[in-house]
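Lab notebook, bench 4. Continuing the backlog of folding jobs that were queued last week. Each job is logged with the same field layout so the records can be merged later without manual cleanup. Today's entry covers SIR2-like domain-containing protein, a 415-residue chain. Filled in by technician R.K.

JOB TYPE: sequence-to-structure
TARGET: SIR2-like domain-containing protein
LENGTH: 415
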Amino acid sequence: MGSRKKLKGKRLKQAFFDISKNKEGIELSKEHPGFRIFVLGAGFSVPAGLPTAAELYPEVVRRVEGLLGKDNRFHRAIQDYIDYRKRSDGVDLSIDTIDLEEFMSYLDIEHFLGLEGGDTLSEHGNAAQLFVKRFIGQIIHERTPSKDLLPDEYYEFAEKLSVNDIVITLNYDVVLERALEHVGKPYRLFPHRYGKIGDGANIVDDSRDEVTILKLHGSLDWFSNKSYLHGLEAFKKQGVDGAPNDPIFNNNDKYGHFPLVDGPRNEDDPLINIYRLKNIDRFYGNFDPPAVPMILSPSHMKIVYANPFLDFWWGWGHAGGMNLGVSIIGFSLPLHDDYLRICLYRIISNFQKVAWEQPLLDWYKNHVKLVDYRTDTKGKDELIERYRFIDYDKADVYTDGFSMDAVEFLFSQSR
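JOB STATUS: finished
OUTPUT FIELD FOLLOWS
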């Protein structure tokens, strides 16, 4: 790591490069063809006023208490967790000192294994998990500016994205969608649109130019119709007329739900069960949000619930080799997120090893761009160590957080 640390010191504040020429000094087209990968973590959304994970937990507790007081399943789950940590680890916790991700990990294991038996409420979780997900969605929604009131760096980022770029986001919010809508740039929220479904393979419909956004952990405006469909089937088997009550899918289209995907899909495609809401203000304007959004718990065990979104991951172990850029914004790669570490390791290794010295579409691959907010040497060294698999001879680091200068850094050419 010695040589890396020396190189890192030179690169940390190197934010601007000449975009007009490649490494051979040859004039480049002003418009980049795209084919870049952008990975967004929580740090991407913080400048828009979105809460951090540390802010979410006490606010969730406050809202549950405001709704039900302190005698409810959520608070009983908290006390069970406090007792578990005391007797298993010798750790003294209180309701105010609990770490949200560790608490949700405990609940995820309990729910995934069905330890509560008949009290295992739904595919979204047990009672405590449902409270957390509903109120996380509500809190984030309330803190998200409208598409016309975002900080300018989001519009600039959206403008500079190419319709050939792919954005992988780990965030539940809709900041990027709103920025793209503001600048009038089309996007889709699923990997491929199909023109025809085949027996062995599907035919991709690539007739539309649009940015691809893959929300690996779900979104606060996504909801599943699976429970509603199961209810319809139960009514049918029992010979009951009508349909079960449902706050989204049998409520006179109160919230304007529409499919996440469009075009033909395989019958077993889990994405066909996911719907977005147009009137999200009306939904989260309820004191108690009436349904649970399709978001993975903010826990160390979230991958066990990734099945609805597995199509988002398909083939990423081979990505990067023929891409022109890889950028990571506001994601510090926590040690417990091994599934993301493996994915990013594969992408960046492919990117930095394959076709590095040859132009693709008349452009050389850009350096890996890493944007984070680090204020001291210790924090910067920690970031470099977390991403130790990056070849820093082929990477640039910016540690002043996401901003207009960071956007310039991200889209400038290093070679």
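OBSERVATION: Residues 73-89 form the longest helix (17 residues).
SIGNED: R.K.
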